[in-house]
## 1
Amino acid sequence: GQQVMQIPQYQHVQEGEDFTTYCNSSTTLSNIQWYKQRPGGHPVFLIQLVKSGEVKKQKRLTFQFGEAKKNSSLHITATQTTDVGTYFCAPRAGGSYIPTFGRGTSLIVHP
Amino acid sequence: EAGVAQSPRYKIIEKRQSVAFWCNPISGHATLYWYQQILGQGPKLLIQFQNNGVVDDSQLPKDRFSAERLKGVDSTLKIQPAKLEDSAVYLCASSLPRTGDTEAFFGQGTRLTVV
């Protein structure tokens, strides 16, 4: 079955530093979604990547989908305290409509 | 646009008791999901409905968990009897038909504590 690893599990940064989380799959993916969950909150959709090598930007957030469609990353430039939360990748393997979530990366931003 | 509604927000029960959670998805969303999120982990899919039919329930512990989606709209998830390890947040989500891979909209969740 599909194995998804998300690293790191936790990341502490000083406000203004950059942050990156990685999502790696053992199988080729059809697409991948990213969600953010604030402490005590529920997951909120950020983006969906579909094409090999795709790069999408949302203000300070940059999302990439690997050329082999087996990995993805989320990069935040100049973190702010509002970026605090857990970032989950939710990859879908080819032919599967079952949305699975990674373990998530918890981002802690120190002011 | 109203979001996904869930109730109750919190529930505390003793082990071996039963409990039910309710979810009202976003109007027009044919796909409904129930997830279990244990503290410190990502959401784990329990069951996925397309209208009132089950798409996947492979990770639903069927000896104690059951779910239904009457008339393809509201859904209930039941646990009977509950175990200590069922303590978690139960999240309901909905999305447009799965023919397109669309985002899932999550409700606030029900935090269940089994003591």
## 2
Amino acid sequence: DIQMTQSPSSLSASVGDRVTITCRASQGISNYLAWYQQKPGKVPKLLIYAASTLQSGVPSRFSGSGSGTDFTLTISSLQPEDVATYYCQKYNSAPFTFGPGTKVDIK
Amino acid sequence: EVQLVESGGGLVQPGRSLRLSCAASGFTFDDYAMHWVRQAPGKGLEWVSGISWNSGSIGYADSVKGRFTISRDNAKNSLYLQMNSLRAEDTALYYCAKGGLGFGDPFDYWGQGTLVTVSS
């Protein structure tokens, strides 16, 4: 099975900073990669799918890129409401594995 | 408005069974794949199982294969997860999630979850 890894596991940044999270698949998954945001105590929310397509209603400060095995999620200007754990997920075929998550805090 | 409401969770002893349900509304249920995702306390997301619109494609995580069975009743707009031989490590919040028209699509709506606690 394909394994998903993320780095860093956590980060702390200032409001307005550019934040980048990396996700790596152990084998190529083309662009079948989604990013989810889970705020503390809340349900996960789909942010990006097909590696770079923003889900409807998601602020444009979020963007995604990559293909094959290496992917990134970028928040162009971190806002207080972006405090959350971010997960990548492969969905080309079962098992639809999630990455371990990256916790983002405000410094 | 899409709504997914899970039920059936609770406290159960190791080795026993439990059946989770997910009632769906606000979309054409029988057009979409559906999934179960769980989250152990303080841990990350783990995909558990998924089923295509017509039950023609079904998948399980290795951790539950042979013990859990996913099913759906399109006439009742409902998704189920039969969990047998439960273990302490199955303790988690279980989410029902809506997939896409294809089995390999992301999960765009999630329920609030139902808590399963496996303990003697």
